[in-house]
Design brief:
Length: about 140
């Protein structure tokens, strides 16, 4: 079984260039099969519709989206958050196909978010750390 697929979510094809911290936008684009530009703009629109706190103001699809923004957007799209780790429990689920359910997932890791589709990581690099990377939780479509 293939466990990793290089995938920028259509970022390059959409005309975006250069180094960036757009893992939230890429992962949502890959898992929802929406266009990169559509997801990029939707994340900006959600941020702009929220009360502007310091954390929200710093949220941007190119440089990093705050959890409050992407959580709101994914819930609007009908995705649910499934936590796999709680304070004090330690790591129980790793970024490995046999520890995650099948289907399309948007997986939250330490300082990164990635898309996993039927056990295959879709990202610009392999963040699994050879299957040792801890999963905090994931979003799955209802």
């Amino acid at each position: 079984m293939k466990t990793f697929n290089i995938n920028d979510g259509g970022r390059n094809k959409a005309g975006y260039k250069g180094a960036t911290g757009d893992c939230v936008c890429r992962s949502i684009t890959i898992a929802t099969e929406k266009g990169y530009k559509e997801t990029y703009q939707a994340l900006i629109d959600v941020k702009n519709s929220m009360r502007q706190t310091k954390n929200i103001k710093d949220s941007h699809p190119r440089t990093g989206v705050t959890r409050k923004v992407y959580d709101t957007y994914l819930k609007e799209l009908g995705w649910s958050w499934i936590p796999t780790m709680k304070i004090g429990t330690g790591c129980r689920v790793h970024l490995k196909s046999d520890e995650l359910p099948n289907g399309k997932l948007i997986v939250r890791l330490s300082k990164h978010i990635t898309a996993v589709i039927n056990g295959t990581i879709n990202d610009t690099y392999n963040p699994s750390r050879d299957g040792t990377r801890c999963v905090y939780g994931y979003y799955i479509k209802n």
